[in-house]
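Example record

One chain of 411 residues, shown exactly as stored in the release files.
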Amino acid sequence: MKLLCATLATIALASAATAQETPVVLRVSTMLDGRGHAMKDLRITVEGGKITAVETKAAGAAAGATYDLRGLTVLPGWIDAHVHPTWHFGADGRLSDGKNETPQQGAYAIAGNVWATLEAGFTTIQSVGSPDDKPLREAIAAGEIPGPRLLTSLEPFASTKPTPEELRAAVRQRKADGADLIKIFASKSIREGGGQTLSDEQLAAICGEAKAQGLRTLVHAHSSQSIQAAVRAGCTEIEHGVFATDDDLRLMAERGVYFDPQAGLVFHNYFDNKARFLGIGNYNEEGFAAMEKAVPLAIDVVRRASRTPGLKMVFGTDAVAGAHGHNAEEFIYRVRDAGQSAMDAMVSANSLGAQAMGLGDKIGSVAAGMDADIIALDGNPLEDITAVRRVVFVMKGGRVYKNTVISHIKK
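Predicted structure tokens for this chain:
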């Protein structure tokens, strides 16, 4: 762990990521504000890492402009609620377990994952979870490596052995260790059928103590039984939910529980990289067959969730090795295959995602007072969802990390 932290700290920040000490002005013709509105002809001013002004139809909008983003679609940096940035392929091309590589090789691979994710337009991610996330989070926050701001659960809760009191103590320890949230496995993997694992009492203990400690709880739950148990236990967010029924979706909506299903990226990434996973743990032929069967169910869950009144469906990809930097493909599966509206898909990864993380007053919207997380796409995702693949400008906290826009006016 110490070596990982030290190695990450030696990686130089990309030279393109320059902090702006003087006000930066963005000239914008089309913007999605992250809250469900499309706006035209704007002048956005950024100073000290914050958005200080958003002027609509401002006269002389080009005056003093630093970046001319006209002809593009500008929106808040995306938020991915479920990633695994420490997962990577080793030198042998297989999913790494850390045994066949040096700590330095692993650290550089992880740094590459978060860099690719930031370049793809994701300025905030939530990792659930790994103990290696802590030095990664700190290195990014310190500006030692480029990457999205990172929230982490550290080690997830999965064992069925601890008593409720032991689980409460473990939650308190996670908080002391620096976890931003608690991740819980309440069901088996989809590769093993997705049945409930933790008891109702264990779930109540973890989620109850987490709430008492001011921590959110994200629950891996596939079966209807595990979903309902987690919701009734007062947990904050349900992940995956491949076997969720309409009653389960309504229950989540009634209780104000966030829902984070996946429509395609995670499955297709596994299929595309099958040889790299096969033979490791439950990544066997039976497991891959189970995932093949789950794909239409996952698409249907997203379709039904989109139509459930009041259900707060956020955006999470479950990006593992091979998927980092391709997170935006999940938007395409959601809109093209599951029928979610493009605007709702954008909001799920902007203001709604920020709200779910308790950061709605800081990120997820382009408005005065918010952190300056701003991206630009070559194309409009409301008209062509594949525009999410064409991120040409990325600003996080007022720093520009990517700019392939030709019309860079002046510094």
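Notes: Residues 5-19 have pLDDT under 50 and may be disordered.
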